[in-house]
């Protein structure tokens, strides 16, 4: 596997575009397109929130259906969530307009929305935006980059990644993706839209299995603020343009595909967590020495979700008691008197506690380590061979500044 430049247009046969449709923002693009002339197989995972946005409900039907997928239309600014029958009708109108403009079945048009909950989509502007997208769609990395920027809301940076690998028959396959996400981020999917494209020829079963299995260890292991959104969507499209021998579930090439997909998903997850609203640092937590993967996951997520711990990271304060506390209320059983804890960053590594109590460490060195843009905590509970990693960010006043008046 090799990391390469690009995002959703890195794979063969995918086009992208962006447009300023005036959905909510002024002076910036707010619509994006992903397009493949060759029909795609689609897999998806969606929010676990009972309150689901209209586009989530629409996409769930498309992914479960048999219609060929060619088009994804995405808008930022308005989430089309909690909008009732009118919101669902706007999804239908969007699909019909895209079907007419691109000459594809409306049952295979995927839709994404992100932004303010409760507002209705200005449908005529959105429909006009579809024509703008169709007229400006292009191949190439720049088109994908502009699409990634168009779907941002409170994000401070676009999020893209691409990799390639070689199948057993010698064919090169590419997987690329783009995402947005900064707030309303919590395990079990978050306010994030993630779109992944691949030119692999692969069965629908293999595509779906690979995505659903990997989400558990990537997107579902991130948290910014503990709020599971109404709009979470991860879509994976495969158009088969690479021309490889078809990848089937359980094959050697399937394992290569899974590895590459995991890299894409993990990279996107870390980009989202590190760009949390108001954040100054990516906070990565690994729990090792666990008796089971489930135990490690529960403990890692509890630490990364702790507001007190996140505030300590923001203050560059090695307040390890908050980490042990978060582990203690997680629901997972462990012996606190056997825990070793380390902090790491590009400034070095430092053990903070050994067997549940403080060791003799330098507060100045700890502060230096915790002052970096990427900070890691490693907790060894000495119960087994399993481990898990979760990602989050520090908690600053900037989070309040962004969310206190987000709607108004």
Automatic annotation (TrEMBL):
Cellular component, GO annotation: cytoplasm
Q: Which domain of life is it from?
A: Bacteria
Keyword set, alphabetical order:
Acyltransferase, Amino-acid biosynthesis, Arginine biosynthesis, Autocatalytic cleavage, Cytoplasm, Multifunctional enzyme, Transferase
Query: Which pathway features in its UniProt record?
Result: Amino-acid biosynthesis; L-arginine biosynthesis; N(2)-acetyl-L-ornithine from L-glutamate: step 1/4; Amino-acid biosynthesis; L-arginine biosynthesis; L-ornithine and N-acetyl-L-glutamate from L-glutamate and N(2)-acetyl-L-ornithine (cyclic): step 1/1
Q: Report the EC code(s) recorded for this entry.
A: 2.3.1.35, 2.3.1.1
Gene Ontology biological process: L-arginine biosynthetic process; ornithine biosynthetic process
Origin organism is: Mediterraneibacter butyricigenes
Compartments annotated for it: namely: Cytoplasm
Q: Reaction catalysed?
A: N(2)-acetyl-L-ornithine + L-glutamate = N-acetyl-L-glutamate + L-ornithine; L-glutamate + acetyl-CoA = N-acetyl-L-glutamate + CoA + H(+)
Quote the InterPro entries the UniProt record gives.
Answer: Arg_biosynth_ArgJ, ArgJ-like_dom_sf, ArgJ_beta_C
GO terms assigned for molecular function: L-glutamate N-acetyltransferase activity; L-glutamate N-acetyltransferase activity, acting on acetyl-L-ornithine as donor
How it assembles, according to the record, is: Heterotetramer of two alpha and two beta chains.
Q: Which family does it belong to?
A: Belongs to the ArgJ family.
Q: Does the keyword Acyltransferase apply?
A: yes
Does the keyword field hold Acyltransferase?
yes
HAMAP family listed in its UniProt record: ArgJ (MF_01106)
Q: Name one Pfam family in it.
A: ArgJ
> Main role?
Catalyzes two activities which are involved in the cyclic version of arginine biosynthesis: the synthesis of N-acetylglutamate from glutamate and acetyl-CoA as the acetyl donor, and of ornithine by transacetylation between N(2)-acetylornithine and glutamate.
The record's Gene3D superfamilies line, in alphabetical order, gives: ArgJ beta chain, C-terminal domain, L-amino peptidase D-ALA esterase/amidase
Put simply, this protein is called: Arginine biosynthesis bifunctional protein ArgJ
In this chain's numbering, which residues are marked as the site (Involved in the stabilization of negative charge on the oxyanion by the formation of the oxyanion hole)?
114-115
Q: Where substrate is bound, by residue?
A: 153, 180, 191, 277, 403, 408
| Active site positions | 191 (nucleophile)
């Amino acid at each position: 596997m090799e990391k390469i430049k690009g995002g959703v247009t890195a794979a063969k046969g995918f086009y992208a575009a962006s447009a300023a449709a005036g959905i909510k923002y002024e002076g910036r693009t707010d619509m994006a397109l992903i397009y493949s002339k060759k029909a795609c197989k689609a897999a998806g995972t969606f929010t676990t929130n009972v309150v689901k946005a209209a586009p989530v409900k629409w996409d769930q039907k498309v992914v479960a259906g048999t219609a060929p997928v060619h088009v994804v239309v995405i808008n930022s600014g308005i989430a089309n969530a909690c909008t009732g029958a009118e919101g669902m009708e706007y999804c239908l109108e969007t699909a019909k307009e895209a079907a007419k403009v691109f000459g594809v079945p409306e049952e295979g048009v995927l839709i994404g929305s992100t932004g303010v909950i409760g507002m209705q989509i200005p449908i005529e502007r959105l429909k006009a935006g579809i024509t703008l997208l169709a007229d400006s769609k292009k191949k190439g990395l720049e088109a994908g980059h502009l699409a990634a920027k168009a779907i941002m809301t409170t994000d401070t940076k676009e999020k893209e990644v691409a990799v390639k690998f070689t199948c057993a028959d010698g064919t090169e396959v590419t997987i690329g993706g783009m995402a947005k996400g900064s707030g309303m981020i919590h395990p079990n999917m978050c306010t994030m839209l993630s779109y992944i494209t691949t030119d692999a020829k692969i069965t629908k079963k293999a595509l779906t299995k690979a995505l659903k299995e990997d989400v558990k260890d990537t997107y579902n292991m991130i948290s910014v603020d503990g709020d599971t959104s109404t709009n979470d969507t991860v879509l994976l499209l495969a158009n088969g343009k690479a021309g490889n021998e078809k990848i089937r579930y359980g094959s050697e090439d399937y394992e290569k595909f899974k590895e590459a997909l995991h890299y894409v998903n993990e990279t996107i997850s870390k980009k989202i967590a590190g760009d949390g609203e108001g954040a100054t640092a990516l906070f990565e937590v690994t729990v090792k020495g666990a008796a089971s993967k489930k135990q490690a996951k529960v403990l890692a997520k509890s630490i990364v979700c702790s507001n007190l711990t996140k505030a300590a990271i923001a203050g560059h304060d090695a307040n390890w008691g908050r980490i042990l506390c978060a582990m203690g209320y997680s629901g997972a059983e462990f012996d606190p008197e056997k825990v070793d804890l380390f902090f790491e960053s590009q400034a070095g590594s430092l053990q903070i506690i050994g067997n549940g109590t403080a060791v003799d460490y330098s507060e100045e060195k700890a502060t230096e380590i915790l002052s970096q843009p990427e900070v890691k905590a490693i907790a060894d509970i000495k119960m087994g061979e399993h481990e898990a990693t979760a990602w989050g960010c520090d908690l600053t006043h900037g989070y309040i500044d962004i969310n206190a008046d987000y709607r108004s």
